[in-house]
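Hey,

Quick one before I head out. I ran the complex with 2,5-dihydroxybenzoic acid overnight. Inputs first:
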Amino acid sequence: MTQHPNIDRPKTDDGVMQQRKAYYDKIGTRKLAPLWEVLHGLVIPQPKSACQPALWHYADIRDDIMEAGRLITAKEAERRVLILENPGMPGQSRITTSLYAGLQLILPGEVAPSHRHTQSALRFIVEGGGAYTAVDGEKTIMQEGDFVITPSWTWHDHGNDSDRPMVWMDGLDIPLVQALDCSFSEKYPEESQPLSRPTGDSLARYGSGLLPIDHEVRVPTSPVFNYPYSRTREALDTMRRRDTWDPCHGLKLQYVNPANGESAMPTIGTYMQLLPKGFAGESYRSSDATVFSVVEGKGYTLVGEGSDAQRFDWGKRDTFVIPSWVPHRHHAPDEDVVLFSFSDRPVQKKLGLWRESRGNR
Ligand code: GTQ
């Protein structure tokens, strides 16, 4: 009778553990490792992120931002930004696993010198008005609530010709680009790039429900690089007159690239939503960790469930982040609320990975 070779395998005791350890050390010298020791941490049943829910009250950090303005110039810093660092990933310069966020300060008269990089950037204007970003030869003057894009590999410099400090939230796909090892960057030889198009040209050309007749789509990013808040707000205000509210999101819009109908940026999805006074949202979760910036009003978000549940009370200019797959509910008990948000949803969708669920399912 032939004996199955496994029958002689010793039971899992100290001796076996020692044998296995010796084996792992031996194969390690040949750049090999046993999957069975790590499989359950790699292919997990649902997202278990190092990213933690977090909230930054603008009132608590505004002084720190302004102090940076006294310690270093925008020119010296190149970009004078306080990174919004996720407390679950300290030192990693990220707000979610795949995305970076920071608050950038430009004082009157300053210029943040021109450069370009493969990382895509968004600016969401938090405080001030009248500073500009120049992108590929065109300037846009920015106001609170505007959503401004710096597409991958476009020259960009920022400046402030107004008489007030300006603060905006930067959102970049830095960790994603880092994961793919495809960061390239260079500095423009001068502080500011030359301007070749009048201010407002892109919005007129691409942002009026029209496109130039022979427009060719060459890049995945929207040719509109400033989506002014005045227009976004008006859209939400008009819609609320007849639309029914989504039980989780209120009235939520996504910014789109008018040339291809997809997200305005290929790697970062951007959204604006209105929660009417009295809104008590139902539970929602999705696989894209999401960063929120409060544009108007105050309210709160219940984050997580059971003993882990947290309540984030937020108001105008505050930032908060909800990690992947963490259930949450938005509430706007006292006044209308407008929330801007961004996430890596377009990437997950393109790869067929994105999931959402409502009502704790
Ligand atoms: O404005 O180009 O927050 O390159 C981080 C990296 C802003 C920018 C950031 C950047 C920029």
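Residues 54-358 form a domain with the Jelly Rolls fold (CATH 2.60.120.10).

Talk tomorrow,
K.
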